[in-house]
Write a structure and sequence with these properties.
The chain is of the alpha/beta class. It has 3 domains: about 100 residues, Translation factors (Elongation Factor Tu (Ef-tu), domain 3), CATH 2.40.30; about 120 residues, Nucleotide-binding domain of ferredoxin-NADP reductase (FNR) module (Rossmann fold, 3-Layer(aba) Sandwich); about 60 residues, no CATH class. Helices cover about 15% and strands about 35% of the residues. The strands form 3 sheets. Strands 10-9-8-7-11-12-15 form a 7-stranded mixed sheet. Strands 1-2-5-4-3-6 form a 6-stranded antiparallel barrel. The N and C termini lie far apart (about 40 Å). The mean pLDDT is about 90. The structure holds FE2/S2 (inorganic) cluster. FE2/S2 (inorganic) cluster binds next to loops. The site of FE2/S2 (inorganic) cluster has 13 residues, from loops.
């Protein structure tokens, strides 16, 4: 059970550039104290008169009790909205909604956990590692990206985790290749009991398959582009098998972003499977809808 999200005027405390990313710390009382690892925040962009109506959603990398509660997010400039955020100055006000979505479920026992993240989505793993540590679990990081600039938080992971391994597609940092290629060996050597992962859908699908091969659960945080972030627009619908065994089109921003990997119908993402509850039925010739 998590607390209800709030909408607050956040105050920009710091904004710094590190590699490919901008790191923003906001004073957002109410958001910080409700936050659980895996949840995200949705920021309004462009100011009050802006035509950019959709919020931008970000995983939270850190929360602190300072100034009544701060949150830290990480982003790269990909368009007008993130460009607007990158141009803000300390003490500017940003409308913050959060924390949103369902958090990572936490193990009851002190187990070994692999935390696998790709690029900026890795942000969600750092507050998770802190909570796992409090529960005497062993977080082992696997971080990846296209190149060294794209790997988020390798240094911080050395402090937060029991071990850290890095892979980049261009080989500029760590092993050359996809970070999920390192997963089987780490599961075996660390004796991992669960995998937590954040990143692109292809990575999450592969992580789910590998974890299932070892008979351990994969908890995946989906970072598909969201629009409203609050469950209204259905832009983030994902086919997921529910407890009833039926496929439901669920909203990643409300029922997720964290799902048990084997519940997601990865091959059908981007479609409404014909057997999903409420899916439009194909009409026979001459039949009226
Ligand atoms: Fe609008 Fe999820 S982003 S419903």
């Amino acid at each position: 059970m998590t607390d209800s999200p709030v909408q607050v005027p956040g105050t920009l405390l710091t904004l710094r550039r590190a590699g490919a990313y901008h790191t923003m710390t906001l004073v957002a009382p109410g958001v910080a104290e409700r936050f659980r690892p895996g949840q995200f925040v949705a920021l309004a962009v462009g100011g009050e008169q802006s035509s950019m109506l959709l919020r931008r959603c970000f995983f939270v990398r850190e929360v602190k009790p300072d100034y009544g509660g701060t949150i830290e997010i990480v982003f790269s400039v990909r368009g007008k909205g993130t460009g607007w955020l990158a141009a803000l100055r300390p003490r500017d006000i940003i409308d913050v909604a959060g924390p949103l979505g369902r958090p990572f479920p936490l193990p009851r026992d002190p187990v070994t956990c692999v935390l696998l993240g790709v690029a900026h989505a890795s942000a969600a793993l750092f507050p998770l590692a802190a909570v796992l540590r409090q529960r005497d679990c062993r977080p082992c990081f696997l971080l990846g990206g296209a190149g060294s600039d794209d790997v988020l938080g390798a240094r911080g992971a050395r402090r937060a985790g029991d071990s850290v391994a890095v892979a980049t597609r261009d080989g500029s940092l760590g092993s050359a290749g996809q970070v999920e290629d390192l997963l089987p060996e780490l599961i075996e050597t660390a004796g991992a009991d669960v995998v937590y992962a954040c990143g692109p859908l292809d990575t999450l699908r592969t992580v789910t398959r590998i974890a299932a091969g070892y008979g351990i659960p994969a908890q995946v945080a989906v970072e598909e582009p969201m629009a409203c972030g609050t469950g209204v627009c259905m832009a983030c619908a994902l086919p997921v098998v529910g407890d009833d065994g039926a496929t439901h089109m669920v909203r990643t921003c409300v029922e997720g972003p964290v799902f048990r990997g084997e519940r997601v119908r990865w091959d059908d993402v981007g479609t409404i499977p014909f057997d999903a509850l409420g899916a439009p039925r194909a009409l026979r010739l001459g039949e009226r809808p």
